[in-house]
What does this fold into?
Amino acid sequence: MNILRTQTSTLISFCALVWSLASGCTPVTTELHDVVDPDFRDKTFDRILISALDSDLAQRTATETIFREKFADLQTVVVGSLDILLPTREWKEDEIFALMKEHGIDAVLMIEETQFSQERQYVPRETVIDTHDYLSGRSFRYHPRLGYGRSQTRTTVRSYGGYYVDLPRIRHELRLYDVATRRMAYYATSLTAGDSDVSFEKLIDSLARETVARLLAHGLIRPSSESAEDGEASQAEKTPTTSQP
It folds into this structure.
Protein backbone atom coordinates (compact mmCIF):
# COMPACT_ATOMS: atom_id res chain seq x y z
CA MET A 1 0.00 0.00 0.00
CA ASN A 2 1.39 3.39 -0.95
CA ILE A 3 1.35 5.80 1.96
CA LEU A 4 3.59 8.57 0.65
CA ARG A 5 4.53 9.79 -2.78
CA THR A 6 7.48 11.95 -3.62
CA GLN A 7 7.98 13.30 -7.10
CA THR A 8 11.18 14.09 -8.92
CA SER A 9 11.12 15.50 -12.43
CA THR A 10 13.86 15.92 -14.94
CA LEU A 11 12.79 18.58 -17.45
CA ILE A 12 14.54 19.77 -20.53
CA SER A 13 15.29 23.48 -20.07
CA PHE A 14 13.45 24.49 -23.20
CA CYS A 15 10.18 22.93 -22.11
CA ALA A 16 8.59 26.20 -20.99
CA LEU A 17 9.18 27.79 -24.36
CA VAL A 18 7.80 24.77 -26.17
CA TRP A 19 4.64 24.87 -24.10
CA SER A 20 4.13 28.60 -24.63
CA LEU A 21 4.46 28.31 -28.39
CA ALA A 22 2.42 25.16 -28.67
CA SER A 23 -0.47 26.28 -26.50
CA GLY A 24 -0.70 29.93 -27.54
CA CYS A 25 0.40 31.45 -24.23
CA THR A 26 2.58 34.20 -25.68
CA PRO A 27 1.05 37.61 -24.81
CA VAL A 28 0.00 40.10 -27.48
CA THR A 29 2.29 43.13 -27.49
CA THR A 30 2.30 46.45 -29.33
CA GLU A 31 5.39 48.53 -29.97
CA LEU A 32 4.43 52.10 -30.86
CA HIS A 33 6.54 55.07 -31.94
CA ASP A 34 4.91 58.48 -32.13
CA VAL A 35 5.45 62.22 -32.47
CA VAL A 36 3.31 65.23 -31.57
CA ASP A 37 3.42 68.39 -33.66
CA PRO A 38 4.84 71.17 -31.43
CA ASP A 39 1.88 73.41 -32.28
CA PHE A 40 -0.48 70.94 -30.60
CA ARG A 41 1.43 70.04 -27.45
CA ASP A 42 -0.95 72.11 -25.35
CA LYS A 43 -4.06 70.99 -27.20
CA THR A 44 -6.60 68.57 -25.74
CA PHE A 45 -9.44 67.19 -27.84
CA ASP A 46 -12.95 66.59 -26.53
CA ARG A 47 -14.73 64.66 -29.28
CA ILE A 48 -12.87 62.44 -31.75
CA LEU A 49 -14.07 60.67 -34.86
CA ILE A 50 -12.50 57.20 -35.13
CA SER A 51 -11.97 56.12 -38.74
CA ALA A 52 -10.48 52.73 -39.57
CA LEU A 53 -9.26 52.78 -43.17
CA ASP A 54 -10.01 49.17 -44.00
CA SER A 55 -11.80 47.83 -47.08
CA ASP A 56 -12.93 44.79 -45.07
CA LEU A 57 -16.15 45.89 -43.40
CA ALA A 58 -15.90 43.30 -40.62
CA GLN A 59 -12.36 44.39 -39.67
CA ARG A 60 -13.29 48.06 -39.95
CA THR A 61 -16.26 47.56 -37.64
CA ALA A 62 -14.18 45.57 -35.16
CA THR A 63 -11.39 48.17 -35.11
CA GLU A 64 -13.69 51.13 -34.52
CA THR A 65 -15.69 49.24 -31.88
CA ILE A 66 -12.60 48.21 -29.92
CA PHE A 67 -11.14 51.73 -29.99
CA ARG A 68 -14.46 53.12 -28.76
CA GLU A 69 -14.42 50.65 -25.88
CA LYS A 70 -10.96 51.82 -24.83
CA PHE A 71 -12.22 55.43 -24.69
CA ALA A 72 -15.36 54.48 -22.74
CA ASP A 73 -14.13 55.65 -19.31
CA LEU A 74 -12.48 58.85 -20.54
CA GLN A 75 -13.90 62.36 -20.68
CA THR A 76 -12.94 62.59 -24.34
CA VAL A 77 -15.82 61.14 -26.36
CA VAL A 78 -15.30 59.12 -29.54
CA VAL A 79 -17.62 58.47 -32.44
CA GLY A 80 -17.18 55.70 -35.01
CA SER A 81 -17.07 56.81 -38.63
CA LEU A 82 -19.54 54.05 -39.53
CA ASP A 83 -22.08 55.71 -37.23
CA ILE A 84 -22.26 58.97 -39.17
CA LEU A 85 -20.43 58.47 -42.49
CA LEU A 86 -22.38 55.63 -44.04
CA PRO A 87 -20.31 53.63 -46.55
CA THR A 88 -23.36 53.35 -48.80
CA ARG A 89 -23.07 57.03 -49.79
CA GLU A 90 -20.59 59.14 -51.70
CA TRP A 91 -19.72 62.00 -49.38
CA LYS A 92 -18.53 65.40 -50.59
CA GLU A 93 -15.85 67.20 -48.60
CA ASP A 94 -18.13 70.03 -47.46
CA GLU A 95 -20.75 67.47 -46.37
CA ILE A 96 -18.22 65.60 -44.26
CA PHE A 97 -17.00 68.70 -42.45
CA ALA A 98 -20.56 69.96 -41.96
CA LEU A 99 -21.49 66.60 -40.43
CA MET A 100 -18.49 66.68 -38.09
CA LYS A 101 -19.42 70.21 -37.01
CA GLU A 102 -22.97 69.04 -36.35
CA HIS A 103 -21.67 66.30 -34.04
CA GLY A 104 -19.17 68.59 -32.30
CA ILE A 105 -16.16 66.63 -33.53
CA ASP A 106 -12.88 68.49 -33.07
CA ALA A 107 -10.43 65.76 -34.13
CA VAL A 108 -10.21 62.73 -36.40
CA LEU A 109 -8.12 59.65 -35.59
CA MET A 110 -7.35 57.59 -38.70
CA ILE A 111 -6.11 54.03 -38.25
CA GLU A 112 -4.61 52.34 -41.28
CA GLU A 113 -3.17 48.85 -41.54
CA THR A 114 0.02 49.06 -43.59
CA GLN A 115 1.29 45.48 -43.42
CA PHE A 116 0.26 42.04 -42.24
CA SER A 117 2.71 39.18 -42.17
CA GLN A 118 3.39 35.91 -40.41
CA GLU A 119 6.72 35.04 -38.87
CA ARG A 120 7.35 31.31 -39.15
CA GLN A 121 9.11 29.93 -36.10
CA TYR A 122 10.35 26.40 -35.53
CA VAL A 123 9.51 24.75 -32.24
CA PRO A 124 12.45 22.43 -31.45
CA ARG A 125 11.65 18.84 -30.61
CA GLU A 126 12.27 18.31 -26.92
CA THR A 127 11.74 15.47 -24.48
CA VAL A 128 10.40 15.70 -20.95
CA ILE A 129 11.13 12.89 -18.51
CA ASP A 130 9.02 12.61 -15.34
CA THR A 131 10.06 10.17 -12.63
CA HIS A 132 7.63 9.54 -9.78
CA ASP A 133 9.09 7.87 -6.69
CA TYR A 134 6.58 6.04 -4.47
CA LEU A 135 7.26 5.01 -0.90
CA SER A 136 5.89 1.53 -0.22
CA GLY A 137 5.80 -1.03 2.59
CA ARG A 138 8.91 -2.87 1.39
CA SER A 139 10.94 0.28 1.90
CA PHE A 140 10.77 -0.49 5.62
CA ARG A 141 11.64 -4.18 5.36
CA TYR A 142 15.24 -5.17 5.94
CA HIS A 143 16.86 -8.04 4.07
CA PRO A 144 20.13 -9.50 5.50
CA ARG A 145 21.76 -9.61 2.08
CA LEU A 146 20.00 -6.84 0.12
CA GLY A 147 19.36 -4.36 2.90
CA TYR A 148 16.19 -2.27 2.88
CA GLY A 149 13.89 -2.55 -0.13
CA ARG A 150 13.78 0.25 -2.66
CA SER A 151 10.72 2.35 -3.28
CA GLN A 152 8.71 1.88 -6.43
CA THR A 153 9.40 4.24 -9.34
CA ARG A 154 7.43 5.11 -12.45
CA THR A 155 8.90 7.03 -15.36
CA THR A 156 7.02 8.68 -18.22
CA VAL A 157 8.61 10.16 -21.32
CA ARG A 158 6.85 12.84 -23.37
CA SER A 159 8.01 14.61 -26.51
CA TYR A 160 7.00 18.04 -27.79
CA GLY A 161 7.79 20.28 -30.72
CA GLY A 162 9.27 19.34 -34.04
CA TYR A 163 6.96 21.59 -36.03
CA TYR A 164 6.50 25.19 -37.24
CA VAL A 165 4.10 27.85 -35.98
CA ASP A 166 3.07 31.03 -37.82
CA LEU A 167 3.09 34.12 -35.57
CA PRO A 168 1.03 37.10 -36.84
CA ARG A 169 2.62 40.54 -37.14
CA ILE A 170 0.52 43.59 -38.03
CA ARG A 171 1.69 47.16 -38.65
CA HIS A 172 -0.41 50.33 -38.51
CA GLU A 173 -0.15 54.04 -39.10
CA LEU A 174 -2.18 56.33 -36.85
CA ARG A 175 -2.86 59.97 -37.68
CA LEU A 176 -4.72 62.43 -35.48
CA TYR A 177 -6.02 65.54 -37.26
CA ASP A 178 -7.26 68.79 -35.78
CA VAL A 179 -10.56 69.54 -37.52
CA ALA A 180 -10.38 73.33 -37.04
CA THR A 181 -7.03 73.69 -38.85
CA ARG A 182 -7.18 70.38 -40.78
CA ARG A 183 -3.57 69.80 -39.75
CA MET A 184 -2.03 66.60 -38.41
CA ALA A 185 -1.43 66.91 -34.68
CA TYR A 186 -0.14 63.42 -33.99
CA TYR A 187 1.49 60.63 -35.98
CA ALA A 188 2.43 57.11 -34.94
CA THR A 189 3.53 53.78 -36.37
CA SER A 190 3.05 50.50 -34.58
CA LEU A 191 3.92 46.83 -34.68
CA THR A 192 1.60 44.38 -32.92
CA ALA A 193 2.65 40.77 -32.45
CA GLY A 194 0.87 37.74 -31.03
CA ASP A 195 0.91 33.96 -30.87
CA SER A 196 -0.28 31.57 -33.55
CA ASP A 197 -3.84 31.35 -32.17
CA VAL A 198 -4.46 35.06 -31.55
CA SER A 199 -7.51 36.65 -33.17
CA PHE A 200 -7.65 39.90 -35.14
CA GLU A 201 -9.68 41.44 -32.33
CA LYS A 202 -6.98 40.65 -29.75
CA LEU A 203 -4.33 42.30 -31.92
CA ILE A 204 -6.45 45.44 -32.31
CA ASP A 205 -7.24 45.46 -28.59
CA SER A 206 -3.52 45.67 -27.83
CA LEU A 207 -3.07 48.44 -30.41
CA ALA A 208 -6.01 50.44 -29.05
CA ARG A 209 -4.85 50.10 -25.44
CA GLU A 210 -1.35 51.34 -26.28
CA THR A 211 -2.67 54.17 -28.47
CA VAL A 212 -4.97 55.49 -25.74
CA ALA A 213 -2.14 55.31 -23.20
CA ARG A 214 0.13 57.38 -25.45
CA LEU A 215 -2.53 59.96 -26.27
CA LEU A 216 -3.19 60.37 -22.54
CA ALA A 217 0.53 60.71 -21.84
CA HIS A 218 0.78 63.49 -24.43
CA GLY A 219 -2.29 65.26 -23.02
CA LEU A 220 -4.15 65.08 -26.34
CA ILE A 221 -7.23 63.45 -24.76
CA ARG A 222 -8.92 63.94 -21.43
CA PRO A 223 -8.62 61.25 -18.72
CA SER A 224 -11.54 59.91 -16.75
CA SER A 225 -13.15 62.31 -14.32
CA GLU A 226 -11.86 60.26 -11.37
CA SER A 227 -8.29 60.38 -12.68
CA ALA A 228 -8.57 64.12 -13.21
CA GLU A 229 -9.87 64.64 -9.67
CA ASP A 230 -7.10 62.47 -8.24
CA GLY A 231 -4.53 64.48 -10.15
CA GLU A 232 -5.93 67.79 -8.88
CA ALA A 233 -6.01 66.49 -5.32
CA SER A 234 -2.44 65.27 -5.59
CA GLN A 235 -1.34 68.64 -6.95
CA ALA A 236 -3.15 70.44 -4.14
CA GLU A 237 -1.32 68.34 -1.55
CA LYS A 238 2.03 69.25 -3.11
CA THR A 239 1.23 72.99 -3.24
CA PRO A 240 2.61 74.75 -0.15
CA THR A 241 0.26 77.08 1.74
CA THR A 242 1.15 80.29 3.49
CA SER A 243 -0.66 81.75 6.46
CA GLN A 244 -1.51 85.39 6.77
CA PRO A 245 -0.33 87.16 9.92
Q: What stands out?
A: The chain has six helices and eleven strands. The chain has a mean pLDDT of 82.
